[in-house]
């Protein structure tokens, strides 16, 4: 299924700068920041063209977890930050990324790019060795689980380079987040019967002096997921995008090809059990790929803890702390598997907050799995005492991490399946469960302050809306802004570990849900 390629069309960059996936740290032990929010527009891509391929779900071979999300983040960066025209960015996801369509849109992009522009081709998926063992192929969405059929449905790297070389661009940036070992994301053989890669050429046969070819690993290595992350995602495409946003920038904010590769290598060295060495296979090391000034995550901290900053600063309230009185009253707080009642078709919930009452009307047919989860959270008292820990002016108010670390820990992995969009939009007053990626919703939810319809097709189907107390939304304290590490607000990881004690000590102005009750 192709992800929407133009869901952000026409939206102002200022609005997009507020997007943060509404749960970027849903998996609380993850120190790597979400890249869903594109940096502020810089322009420079008006003459460019691009193809972004995100192959997470193959038809016949194993999945590549997180490939789709990484690809979406790249698309947003190209269109919203660099301002590459929407109609010149082809986004192929999952079953759209067949051999024929990859060829077609590569050729189309080569025809669309203007003199002086950059031709981008981002591939996130599987690679395999070519039949002669001397080149690699990009595995198409419908490749079969035997060697002959895999080759028949895959695109040789040299052929792709030839197609891209036909354009009038000043440079080509070809980033391949795949290895050519023929192994799956788990490191096992992708299919039987593949010959090993004999030797990597010093340069592909179709070398073009304008081309910068960045690959995820050496030919005999495995390109794996991001190290020390609870959010599964291919490492190289994530790190490369972070590098372009500024994580690998020099003092002038410029990011060269060699700086990008060096940064990715340093980050990947955090995985002590895997050797993955990204390479600049073609192109000048000092070629400038982009500009950015976003500070990157603390690699030393990630290496030491594999958890957000200061997560161990409050051992007296760590996840093994005794449950609260609420947990004792309702054992379901510590047993998510027992809180699975089916919700009514329509039901109302009154949130008694520190700023007044808000009444929500939830519609099960809008998002059945989400509506059922929210119903059970209210029914067992989960939301009582929960604070609005992330309130961003002009965007939304987010809550749903339980104040008792023992309870929060039990629900951390209680994920529910995604609900498909049903035509209801994230406009003001709509209530939506937060997500950190496919099938990752747990307990966090947010209420929209404005029209955030760009979230509609990115895994955020609303479950209901505010029917009373709309004015209370504007009273919720929002002075802390975005959470750490991107802003000055609470760190979700530390909140999971330390609970409401952390919020009360360091963010005393936050508003809270006193009680949440089902009402007639």
Summarize the structure.
The protein is α+β, with helices and mostly antiparallel strands and 520 residues long. The protein is built from 14 helices and 19 strands. It has two domains: 42-305, Rossmann fold (3-Layer(aba) Sandwich); 315-519, Cyclophilin.
Helix-strand category:
alpha+beta
Q: How much β-strand is present in the residues?
A: 15-25%
Main β-sheet description: 8 strands, antiparallel
- Helix % is 10-25%
* Total individual domains: 2
Strand order of the largest sheet: 14-15-17-16-18-13-12-19
Distance between the termini: 40 Å
User: How many beta strands in the DSSP annotation?
Assistant: 19
- What is the CATH first-level class name of the largest domain? Alpha Beta
Counted by DSSP, the helix tally is: 14
Gyration radius over CA: 24 Å
Q: Tell me, briefly, the overall form.
A: elongated
| CATH hierarchy: architecture of the largest domain | 3-Layer(aba) Sandwich
Mean pLDDT: 82
Return residue spans where pLDDT drops below 50 for at least 5 consecutive residues.
1-29, 189-203, 307-328
- CATH names the topology of the largest domain as Rossmann fold
